[in-house]
Amino acid sequence: MAAGVLAAIGLGIWGVTWARTGTEDPGKAKGRAEAKDKYTTLADCPAVAPFLPRLPGARDPAKDVHSETVTGAITSCSWAQERAAVASVDWDLELGRRGRSGTEEQRQRYTAAVTEGAGEPGIGDEAFWNGTCQLVVRDGNVMVTVWLNGGGSGTDACRPQVRDLARTALTVTQGPPR
Q: Which of residues 110 and 116 earns the better pLDDT score?
């Protein structure tokens, strides 16, 4: 008798949960909605730039951006040479909203951004080339975009440096290594 009562209570709880989520399996819906976010903060350019590989040109702090909101943050660091942009590294952190994790939000943004271009395995969760010398990387709930001016040559000569820069940018996302 007690086992029957416990089973009925269990089914009742499952039914209420199912009705609230509108899914067949409340556990599956919960697992998707609660994907853990890897990153919680973004560092600013003065904190991370010294740890990035040497880039052509000089740092251009006048073009730096660092902005934080309740749902995320952005940081953008620039390098210039003779008033022309030669490199940039941009971080976009998503902390989630509307009951979705930041990782889910970034996955959706990344999927929408990938219209064409070759993939680049081994950097972050997923990465693709957006042109010759621009690499967009998603790692959990952060997207990093690295761009080098390839001089309009249309060659892939810049790619090893861009890959190295993207890997390093991910390691300093929340600040300098400790």
A: 110
